[in-house]
Amino acid sequence: MNSDRRARDLPLDAHVHTDLSPDSNVPIDDYARQAVERNIAEIAITDHVDFDPSAPAYAFTTFVQRERTVRDAAERWGPQGVAIRFGVEVTWDRRWETDIRDHLAHHAYDFVIGSVHVYRDSVYSAEHVGPWVAAQRSLAEVVAPYFDEVAAGARTGLFDAMGHIDFVKRYLVPHVTPDQLAAAPELYEPILLALVESGTALEVNTSGLRQDAAESYPSAAIVARFHELGGERITVGSDAHRAEHFGWALDEGYAAARAAGFRAMTLRRGGGTPIVVELPRPA
């Protein structure tokens, strides 16, 4: 990949992980400093929260610690022109829906992403994905465990946005290519319709542009289809876990959203005043 595709002069990176996630090592001030340098006006800190005791972020830190860290940073960096929002990325797993509902009912966030992840026991893990793909009769059966779970999360209405809805592309390469998925857009329809019906935002996650998938999660074509189906809310984030990935290809995610017909991002759907961020016009 290019040495530096970090975007500049944009209003928001809506998906960022700090060292309060088990898979990141970045202090929050490192991101804030880059935001000043790169003229990114706003950051949503969305560290992982898991409810499965076997998952990496389970009990990794506490709500109190995460909130204090983000709110303190917001006070430090606000005078320098960077707004820092206290968000979270909750791993959606329907087995833990009661716990997730309880947590979100009793803890206030500025922004809540719900995402389906791939862990060691998943059929999409490195150990299992090849045999799993080979054993299925169709592409629909290959992606069903992941796509069905994402659609179920979207239907709950628990989340402000569903994150990286086809993140599974990362693990399917080379057994299934993004081009093969692109040729079957109908597989996305249940997810997109669930988002539309629940009023949940679609996230354009640009981390795929630095991974083997080599395209965003989801692609620009799926973003456009979401808008055609009546989708009204969208967010764009780099999903940075390393300092050098802050803002990565964020401009491409913005371009996909704007080309689809969106004119603004909304960070919060309920429980408070929505944060509406205008998508800048192309230069």
Helix/strand/pairing class, anyone? alpha/beta
- Kindly report how far apart the N and C termini lie: 24 Å
Largest beta-sheet details: 8 strands, parallel
Number of continuous helical runs: 10
**Count of beta strands:** 10
Please, what is the average pLDDT?
Answer: 94
Strand content: 5-15%
Give the SSE string: EHEEHEHEHHEHHHEHEHEE
Helix content: 25-40%
Low-confidence stretches: none
* Structural Rg: 18 Å
Tertiary shape: globular
Describe the fold and architecture.
This protein is α/β, with parallel strands linked by helices and 283 residues long. Helices cover 35% and strands 14% of the residues. The protein contains ten helices and ten strands. The chain has helices spanning 28-38, 63-77, 97-106, 129-135, 139-156, 169-172, 178-182, 189-198, 220-228, 250-260, and strands at residues 13-16, 42-45, 48-49, 83-91, 111-115, 161-162, 201-205, 234-237, 264-266, 276-278. The strands form two sheets. Strands 1, 2, 3, 4, 5, 6, 7 and 8 form an eight-stranded parallel β-sheet that branches. The chain has a two-stranded antiparallel ribbon with strand order 9-10. Helix 5 (139-156) packs parallel to helix 8 (189-198).
